[in-house]
Design a protein that fits this description.
The chain is of the alpha/beta class and 299 residues long. Helices cover 35% and strands 21% of the residues. The chain is globular, with a radius of gyration of 19 Å.
Amino acid sequence: MKEPWRQLPEAFLERLKLIVPPEKLNEVLLAYTIQKPTTLRVNTLKTTVDVVKKIFDDAHIQYEQSDISPISFIVRSEKRALLDLPAYTDGLFYIQSLSSQLPALQLDPQKDEKILDIAAAPGSKTTQIAAIMENTGEIVANDNSRIRGYKLEANLKNQGVTNTRIIISAGQSIWETFPEYFDKALVDAPCSMEGTFTTTNPKTYEHWSPKEIKELVQRQRWLLRSAISATKTGGTIVYSTCTLEPSENEQVIDWILKKEKGKVELTETPTRILPSDLMEGFFVAKLKKVASTIPSVLR
């Protein structure tokens, strides 16, 4: 019988063999074929962990807390049971993969800071950052699509976010509007999404191609460079993707470190998460800006 992961693009499977350690390959391939449990985080702008636990208990929803953060849950019950809860409609919790929660946690936003989310829609990480900041400070949530911007606006409203303004613009040039303005910036870059492929939903990988990856890399590089130029000297920039492809991950970081040599540095070894029965594939790198990247005539 044909292994179910053979449904994935053959060129992708060949590349995967070069990316994943041999001893992990079978585990990763299997992860692409199984249904992961629903995961979420409590929206602390509207409620508490204890309140949500009681709601789940009363609804006989099976759950456990995740070690990602104290407000993250893994739900073993059917997703439909969650969606039917008034608490979901009211924005008391937000359904989000555990891997997707890591970039905002690494960004470590503080109260009253100015934060840029340069590719923000649909707002999963924007709302997470706002909750961590307790609606203080200022978040600028940018996206280049007005349609996605409407979804972002709806999610911000549903989650009770009040410290965020939405901008619809090309992220590559946002630094011109906000030169060295932000304390921190998140670049959750558009990517080939290899970490989220699943054989149970062919739409997750139907557009994958090596050509698309090359086009994405250019966008990723310039989004990251723009975010760095929009961040103050001494500030933090987190770059993340939900793909495994090195040219979109490690090689983008290598490129910016060379491009802005002596002005930007890695603060720790990047995090690479391989797909598993619980986690989607993800990449997170944390950078520190140590010198100005804006030409002196523009400062």
